[in-house]
Design goal:
By secondary structure, the protein is α/β, with parallel strands linked by helices. The chain has 16 helices and 21 strands.
């Protein structure tokens, strides 16, 4: 270990260094002893007077401590490319973006269209960071393709993306695809040769029967493939482990509550009432800067798959919001414009900053109180149950929420289940439970058969009971 500067400074020199001082005193004593006391002795010559003119003192050359080496700069971030196009599956794209950014990757979301705003397969409007043409000269540690139709075909038809991905494969760097993308995008590019591959069940017949694998996740060298939105967390965590190692992957699982997802019951219901309607359910999803993007897009995607009419309303001054991990989403309306209608269900996404901003919307708070007094349905996930609590809308209700929020819910009965339904209220814990939360809403509004059908399309393990 390098010594401190103080330990390396020279000790201050004494007026006479030790060796010189001892010699000087010894010779003086010898001279004194040799002088006789006889008066007749010849006097020694007078001593020469010391000049009073100041002499130039030469300071000793200081011993400098060796300079500390400059602090080492942090290693460059891992660079990840996530391309999107018209009809890209929004859950897959956003789960990947969110998980990779949580792990510390520099993620570029690139549009293969001529514009940055891309409408995904479920109607969610995502805003890319760049056009794919701006990425052609970059080198990436990972290129990860989301699926969806016609999104996978739009990716396939991008010559620039094809060139980027082929360079990636040729250089033995990581590349990945999920859902329809392995069969619709990578196969025509010749990037599945001698690679065991999986994909969405609807596209398995397009893969070589010899190399096709019916598994949720398949890692074959530098290629990783997976099946659909319901397997995208597993897919994304696997890629994080390949990029950053097992420790980081485990930390991400813990922070997203993925590691404890199976410890508690999936769903509990109290004071059961019917949610069935004689019309297509009208659902309002308010959003704000800082909302958790996985929760936002999962609720939108799943409820729209089930044929609910979902309106995404921004409480910000603009329709575009910046979610908690940097995903840019364009809402359908402002909350002011949305307040003119009556909704069967208002469901609040989480995200700490997003919940704070939703809480500040007077229009939304008024709508929530009217929703409760009208006997209509309310939903909240992650940190957003606290919004309902502050409005006094959780009285005599059993709920669940993010563990850090539960302690703030005074005088509220809390359940350990992932999803809790109490009468006209449904709540859920966090991002890992967003799919269960949305499917539980589908089962209440449309029935178990519809929820099971949607789960099958997601390739998500849904309970049979």
């Amino acid at each position: 270990m390098m010594k401190s500067l103080s330990s390396l400074r020279p000790a201050p020199a004494s007026k006479f260094p030790t060796a010189i001082s001892a010699t000087f005193h010894h010779s003086t004593l010898s001279i004194s002893a040799a002088i006789p006391n006889s008066a007749t002795q010849e006097k020694p010559p007078p001593l020469k007077q010391r000049s009073t003119k100041p002499r130039k003192i030469i300071s000793p050359t200081p011993i400098l401590a060796p300079a500390s080496p400059p602090p080492s700069s942090p290693p460059p971030k891992k660079k990840v490319l996530v391309p999107i196009g018209l009809g890209t599956e929004e859950m897959e794209a956003v789960i990947m973006i969110d998980v990779f950014r949580r792990a510390g990757a520099a993620v570029t979301v690139a549009s293969v269209e001529e514009h940055l705003v891309v409408e995904a397969s479920g109607g969610t409007k995502l805003v890319a960071d760049a056009l794919i043409s701006a990425c052609s000269d970059e080198t990436y540690d990972l290129v990860a393709l989301p699926g969806g139709m016609p999104g996978s075909a739009r990716l396939r038809d991008s010559k620039t993306l094809q060139d980027i991905t082929k360079r990636q494969a040729d250089a033995k760097r990581l590349y990945a695809a999920i859902c329809a993308a392995p069969a619709i995008t990578l196969l025509p590019w010749g990037l599945l040769k001698r690679k065991q591959t999986t994909c969405h069940p609807a596209f398995m017949d397009k893969l070589s029967s010899f190399w096709a694998v019916k598994s949720n996740l398949q890692v074959s060298g530098e290629l990783t493939t997976s099946r659909g939105p319901g397997t995208c967390f597993e897919f994304s965590i696997s890629l994080v482990e390949q990029l950053f190692g097992e420790v980081v992957a485990k930390e991400i699982c813990e922070s997203m509550l993925l590691s404890v997802a199976d410890e508690n019951s999936r769903r509990e219901e109290f004071n059961e009432v019917s949610w069935s309607l004689d019309h297509a359910p009208q659902v309002l999803l308010p959003v704000a800067n800082g909302c958790e993007e996985i929760q936002v897009v999962t609720i939108i995607d799943i409820l729209r798959r089930a044929k609910a009419n979902v309106v995404v309303a921004s409480v910000e001054k603009s329709l575009q919001i910046l979610a908690s991990r940097g995903t840019k989403i364009v809402a359908d309306k402002t909350i002011s414009a949305a307040s003119d209608s009556v909704y069967d269900l208002i469901v609040l996404p989480g995200g700490e900053l997003g919940s704070e901003r939703l809480q500040k919307s007077r229009i939304l708070k008024k709508m929530l109180k009217e929703q409760k007094s009208g006997g209509r349905f309310l939903g909240a996930i992650c940190s957003s149950p606290e919004i309902l609590h502050r409005q006094g809308l959780l009285k005599d209700k059993r709920v669940t929420a993010l563990p850090s929020v539960i302690s703030k819910l005074d005088d509220v009965a809390v359940s350990a289940a992932r999803v809790v339904i109490d009468g006209n209220l449904i709540t859920a814990k966090g991002v890992a439970n967003a799919t269960d939360f949305a499917l539980a809403i589908v089962s209440k509004l449309f029935g178990q058969a519809r929820a099971r059908s949607v789960a099958e399309g997601l390739v998500y393990d849904y309970p049979k009971q």
